[in-house]
Amino acid sequence: MKVINIDNQPWLSLPRTLKITTDGIRYRLFRASVTVAVITVAVAFLMNILAESLIKRAVASDTRERIQKAQLNSIWASKLTSPGSPESIIVETATTEKGSDLYKETQIFAKFDDKAMEEFQALAKDINYIFNFFENLDYAKRRDLIHTSEGVDILRYLSDPENYKTFYIGLSRYKSIHFGMEKEEFDALLAKLPELDATINTILEARREANAKINAILRRDYPNANNDAERLAMALPDADKEFGDSIRSVGFVFDKETVAPELARQAQRLQYTTRMKNSIKDRPVRQLIAQEANILPADVNDVLMWNFLNDKDFAEKYLVKMADSGQDIEGLSADLLVDLAKGRKEAEALERAERLTMDAGRGFMGLGERLAWLLFVSLLVCGIGITNAMMMSVTERFTEIATLKCLGALDGFIMIMFVLESCFMGVVGGTIGAIIGALIGLGRMLSAFGVNFISAIPFLDILGGMLVSVILGTLLAAIAAVLPSWKAARLAPMEAMRVE
Amino acid sequence: MAENIATEQGQGPDKNGDEKRIIIRTVGLKKTYMMKDVLTQALRGVDVAIDQGEFISVMGPSGSGKSTFFNMIGALDSPTVGRVFIDEVDVAQLTAEELAYLRCHKIGYIFQSYNLIKYMTALENVTTPMAFGGVLPDEARERGMEILDLVGLKDRWHHRPIEMSGGQQQRVAIARSLANNPSVLLCDEPTANLDVNTGQEIIDILVRLNTEKGVTIICATHDHRMMNICDRLMWIRDGQIDRIANREDVHIELASIDGE
Ligand SMILES: Nc1ncnc2c1ncn2[C@@H]1O[C@H](COP(=O)(O)OP(=O)(O)OP(=O)(O)O)[C@@H](O)[C@H]1O
Ligand SMILES: [Mg+2]
Question: Looking at the CA of B66, which ligand is closest?
């Protein structure tokens, strides 16, 4: 009979494993909290960059939308007075959605049926692609490929066989440039150039005609105004009434329900704003502001005026002064002035936001090149930080691993112990870090863009980002802990004890 | 050939009157440590056979390779050259699970440097090998307290290693080695840090385990009392066996030396 019969070692129960693991963490609480702190900082850094990137991206698109909406006035003012350029027509047609007002309008002006219009938009898209392609090239390469030509002239330039050849030779030389259009495609595009010119001329001619008709109507209705611009400024607030009908009658597609009221409102406000800006020309009015600001009347400017008009009491006093000095205050009220002042503030915030989010839209996930690069670096820092912290805390425990193995621990138990511990640390550190990072990012972005962008903040995206950061932090922590502990667990116990 | 060596040297008395059975046998055991390009030959070919139920003392100057030898025969480290048979099973052939089982159930270790788990109380240190062996928590606690009582640490069961003296830690290490009623007990200087009385108590415990339960005890020591109760003595010098002798023979020698 054998004295020592050898069997397989059973697995340790999960509660017991948990108990040993938590006892270990509790005993090394200080050491563990340092490791958790490193994970926290690393994840917070990553999350901060991520949150700021996401917010910036969202604010950028929100800003663009708002600016576009706020610019109805200037868009229509220029549309009603100028036929535009071939380039602007191509870009407009390429970027507008099929079936939009602009799309319909262009179709009417070009006298196209549905199919021809579709073809024209496809052509415009291709040309717009070429515009963008050359836009993004640096100056030297651009000059090499198309000399100094711009806009539609690029196509005209390339239609010349000599230039065409130089262009393709140049392309094959610059390996880093990807033209993205097949040679046949491009040839077909160049072949359509005469057709394009004809279409654009038709559109330009039709628009010129419409502009002339509008001008005639304006001259008829506002005979007292000094110039065309003044006449238009006076007419646009009526865009939701008769003048809107006139706009439609000459061929523009001008939606009565949505666009017209908004355009009228903006035009009206612009009128009021101009009137207010002129109001400080009168000395008594200027004096009121000077008193309030404690400066000389000569130093008063409209920025100061708008600042003070934010206050309703002051706005009331201001209106009285305006009336006293004989200015027209019809339609103006204290509430309106406060509202106008607020509107100006918002416009400023919009401008600032546009400046701050200049680079958004390009690069990885549309985060902008700079932010995408920052995100990559923070990922690296996060990874290295966590790996280092975890590896250190595991390496100093090789003796413990060895001892446990001497007592009959299975390699699997040691692995589970370290997986549990590192996941726990990763989740705790990651969650705290993600929250801190997101809050800091939120705070920084809010202070940069102002509170009126709060509706643009992509909370769901940020939450998703937090989840990703926590998972990433935990995963990194687990991998960084498990690899060395696996190495130690596989060794004979005394060999593991010798590892430094 | 190896069998021959084993039988030649296996001269210990057999307490149970049964046929002698070799429980640990090494063949040409060598261990070389490699530290920063410096080779240390800790063992240079050890062939030894240890009988079941034997109490054998291992002696030798510091650095002679005693601890290294213990690690090899306890299946805690792999030899550079040579083989270790535990109950005629080649340790090198065992799977990881079987090795864990062997370490957990069949061999008890008392390490020279105790190697207690720092974050566990005395009781937890003792019950951990039981848990690995599949003993239920309640039963483990009960048995753990019994063993701690045996080594005189019953009222210190909730202390962590750093809250205990060296001697107390050593006793926890001894208690832990007894956790799963091992068949073989490897003791690396178990009484080094104990006073005369506690040392004697530990020796008594070892003797009792040996005589009553037939546990094979292999004990590295410089303690003269140990020499008085062991069956055989083994000297290691420079990683080789210097000499193996029965206790009676040694006593005659000592007596004659004293007589001179
Ligand atoms: N991890 C190691 N790395 C390198 N050399 C080692 C290692 N462990 C032990 N040695 C060497 O192996 C030899 C034997 O060491 P061992 O610990 O077996 O001696 P020992 O007989 O137990 O001594 P002591 O009585 O002091 O405990 C010594 O020369 C020592 O320097
Ligand atoms: Mg030693």
Answer: 1
Q: pLDDT tens digit string along A60-105?
A: 888 888 888 888 888 888 889 899 999 999 999 998 888 888 999 9
Rounded to a whole number of angstroms, the CA Rg of chain B reads 18
Q: Which long-range contacts (CB under 8 A, 24 or more apart) does A25-31 make?
A: A25/A421, A25/A424, A25/A425, A26/B119, A27/B118, A27/B119, A27/B160, A28/A393, A28/B119, A31/A393
Tokens of B257: 């030396």
* Sign of the CA dihedral running A202, A206, A207, A208: positive
Nearest to B76 among A26, A406, A410 (CB): A406
What is the rounded CA–CA span in Å between residue B127 and residue B143?
A: 8
Which contacts of A180-186 are long-range, i.e. CB under 8 A and separated by 24 or more positions? Answer: A180/A129, A180/A133, A181/A126, A181/A129, A181/A130, A185/A126
> B23, B51, B70, B101: which to substitute to probe chain A, counting the most A Cβ within 10 Å?
B101
Contact A130, A154 (CB under 8 A): yes
pLDDT, tens digit, for every residue of B143-199?
A: 999 999 988 899 999 999 999 988 899 999 999 999 999 999 999 998 888 888 888
- Nearest CA owner, ligand 1 atom 6: B33
Helix (H, G, I), strand (E, B) or coil at A315: helix
